[in-house]
Design brief:
The complex is a heterodimer of chains A (74) and B (533). Chain A is mainly α. Chain A contains four helices and no strands. In chain A, 55% of the residues lie in helices and 0% in strands. Chain B has 21 helices and no strands. The chains are: A mainly alpha (74), B mainly alpha (533).
Amino acid sequence: MERVIEILEDLHPEVDFETCTTLIDDEILDSFDIVTVISELSDEFDITIPPQEIIPENFNSAKALYAMVKRLED
Amino acid sequence: MIFNSASFLLFFAVVLLLYYLVPKKLQWGLLLAASYFFYLYASVKFAVFILFTTTTAYFAANAIGKIQQEMKKTLRERKEEFTRETKKKYKESCKKRQKRILTGTLVSNFGILVFLKFYNFAAINLTAVFALTGSEISIPTMRLILPLGISFYTFQTMGYLIDVYWEKVQPEKSYLKTALFVSYFPQIIEGPISRFGELAPQLFEKKSFDYHRFSTGIQLMIWGFFKKMVIADRFSVIANTVFDNFVDCTGFQVALGIFFYAIQDYTDFSGCIDIARGASEAMGITLAENFDHPYFSRTIPEYWRRWHATLGSWFKDYVFYPISISQCSIKLGKFSKKHFGKQMGKNVPAFFGLAVTWLTTGLWHGSDWNYIGWGVYYGLLIILGILFEPLFQKLNRLLKLKTDHAAWIVVQVLRTFLLTCVGRLIFRANHLSDAAVMMKKMTDLVHLKDYYYPDLWNLGLDHADYMVAFLVLAALFIISFIQEKYHLVIREKLYQLPMLLRWLVLFVGVQMILIFGMYGEGFSQAAFVYMQF
């Protein structure tokens, strides 16, 4: 989870990723950010994130992102 | 049967009347019959293409859906028997079968589109290349005509198929319902490009007459007709004169022509979408928004989220993301990180995706070098914007710029508008080389005196038309500004007026179109700009 937050903070240091649950709904993450996050997560956790996983429910919070990573690791 | 014709108005009035008169369970069937009547009215022989797309998408979606169902059933039934490894292998083999069906359908459908759009372009350019090498090989060209709406319905239908493959939507079991989703008449000409999950349930559900939606839908249609017939068709006169006779135009006239084209393009396309959305709304169906006052955008990426948004969203979901997060892009990112630093490692996958996306967006519009140049222009603008963002932010801090100050916002909006005007010049010019000459005319400082004198009277509009153009442009700006600043839905405000007053406003709107609209004897009725794509 810490690593996911680190990756996100690297992109937007001004956002509190511990509490924010509207990263997509409030347009905090744009499409460029999403690609960067996926690229970093794939590298970090050695997973493949397919395009169908790019839905707001998976990217709206650090917690949701981490849950997706865990699911794809299994 | 284009929207701004008496035949369409009669057709729509009959469809609307029947839609609410027939038993509710027959409503979607009526829409299908109306959509095919609308399509066949344009051309009977081209129906073969839309039927091919419908049929292949129907069978492919259901075949993919069947494999998914089988897979889930097998995994459930043989849960105990499967090891982690065998489960993974079984899933992979199912995915492979689905992928084969998906790929075959995508290749055949996009193949037809590419062939019809690019065969002659490829033939001409290859022949030219052969001639350069001294060869006399000449590839013959063919008389190819694009079927109505093929770029729009192909993208919409293939988006549906990919969504089925990604398990975002269930495949439609009824062939006829699939046919309606592909051919739904209000959006077949110029979009918007809808998503199956959003549009299909609305098309098939039973609708009762809702006076509110009927009324606001008709208002939206009137606004669309006003934009098209009073603004776009008037502004197109000067735009066409300038782009077709730029050699004889001064730099000032060229700039004016590009400005008029910018207004024409927006009001023409968004007007058509308003008519499509209004017609749908009158039948209780909500189509996706395609425009959100794009000329108030502060940056180019924002502009593209607000202009032709359904195409941008299609490319984002089905081209940009899949390419940017593909294994190839991720590897490219790792390579860049190793050789060019951490930041480039992060940027490169998205840059690769952006480059492919903008090249294909350019090609979607047509087969000419200026469309390719237009795609490259926007791709470069966006990539350079991302690359230089840290520098711009540093400069802003250094100059102590208040980036949320109204004056700075105006500067950003004007800058973005000017950049889109350059894009429009590349896009609309008859050839890429023409765009270069026109640009030179506008920026030739050596002959400044010769170029910059305002001669407006030989461009096709008289004094009265200029006056109307100025007034309607001012009205469009004021209405758009109010909507942008106060997020007002003017139709809803109108709906709250007393009925008599509301119908008076609508009556005046129709009168304005009848008095100031460009139609009738001596005027060649202009097709919608995006129909050709």
